[in-house]
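Progress note, sequence design subtask.
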């Protein structure tokens, strides 16, 4: 009887150990599945981050190209303005009629326009429009 009892105890012990090992294996598989899922999610996030980074780099390159183009355009416009100013100065020195016109006094309306302060920013523009002094037409119109 003691052998039967010992055999039952050993059998029960084997069953308990087998069940514990089975539970441990299930828990390890669950942790492995969770780790695999987290790895997949992190790879997806990494891919999304790479897409965003690439888009930002493309945007930065495009803006740099635009800045270069604008700088070239500004340089060209500066050269054109300088050339025109030089031409005007040459004409002014050569042409007596033009020199007389350039030395003439500006009409009052134009003088008032030049006395207005510069508008810088939206608030200043709003203020200048709100408090604008109208430019009245005079009876005498300029010849040119």
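Output:
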């Amino acid at each position: 009887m003691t052998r039967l009892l010992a055999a039952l105890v050993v059998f029960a012990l084997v069953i308990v150990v087998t069940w514990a090992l089975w539970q441990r294996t299930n828990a390890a598989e669950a942790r492995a599945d969770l780790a695999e899922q987290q790895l997949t999610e992190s790879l997806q996030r990494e891919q999304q981050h790479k897409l965003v980074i690439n888009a930002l780099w493309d945007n930065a390159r495009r803006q740099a190209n635009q800045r270069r183009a604008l700088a070239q355009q500004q340089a060209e416009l500066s050269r054109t303005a300088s050339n025109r100013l030089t031409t005007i100065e040459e004409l002014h020195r050569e042409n007596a009629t033009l020199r007389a016109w350039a030395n003439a006094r500006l009409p009052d309306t134009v003088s008032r326009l030049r006395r207005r302060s510069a508008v810088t920013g939206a608030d200043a523009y709003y203020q200048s429009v709100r408090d604008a002094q109208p430019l009245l037409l005079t009876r005498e119109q300029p010849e040119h």
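The chain has four helices and no strands. Work on this subtask will continue into the next period as scheduled.
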